[in-house]
Amino acid sequence: MNPEIYDVNIGESTGASSAAPTYFDPKKTVNAYGFSELQVDGGIICNNPSLYAYQLAKHLNKKTNIRILSIGTGEKPFIPFTSAKQMGKMSWMKRVDEFMMNMDVHSAEYYLKNIAYANNKDDYLRLQKETTCPMDKVEPSDIQNLKDDGLKLFNDNKP
């Protein structure tokens, strides 16, 4: 596989990475192999792209010394089920987006922390903030809350 196949300019990559369904149309591109692609926001299939970055660096680019700083965009507080009654079909349906958005984040985190970097944990750092700030709001108070969350995340992780 040719690692340069996804050597795209910043405009194309940001257009594709922000193409969240219901907000923006998919980005249509032709890759270096001549195949047409429809690209959408990575959060649809990959809310923590660190695992993909690790795999690309290791397997496609044959890198052996890989350091990763992964900065999340925030996640909703997890509310566990406390009884079997809460685990009915309707309860699951109401929370399907939560599971969809968080499952790959935590799976990638687990793999990188416990398998890929099991012997060298200093080479992987994931920064993630639990938040109730909506990402699709643009009121000044919402923007300020996002800034406050970012500053708290930074301050909580100073060496």
Show the helix and strand layout.
Layout: H1 10-17, E1 27-30, E2 36-39, H2 50-60, E3 68-71, H3 89-94, H4 96-116, E4 124-127, H5 140-156
Parallel strand pairs: 3-4
Antiparallel strand pairs: 1-2
Keywords:
alpha+beta; two-stranded parallel ribbon; globular; 159 residues; 4 strands; two-stranded antiparallel sheet; 5 helices
Number of helices: 5
Total strands: the figure is: 4
Helix/strand order: HEEHEHHEH
Q: In whole angstroms, how far apart are the ends?
A: 39 Å
pLDDT averaged residue by residue: 82
- The strand line-up of the biggest sheet is 1-2
Structural class: alpha+beta
Uncertain segments are none
The Rg value, from CA coordinates, equals 18 Å
Q: Name the beta content range.
A: 5-15%
Sheet having the most strands? 2 strands, antiparallel
Quick one: overall form?
A: globular
What's the helical proportion of residues? 25-40%
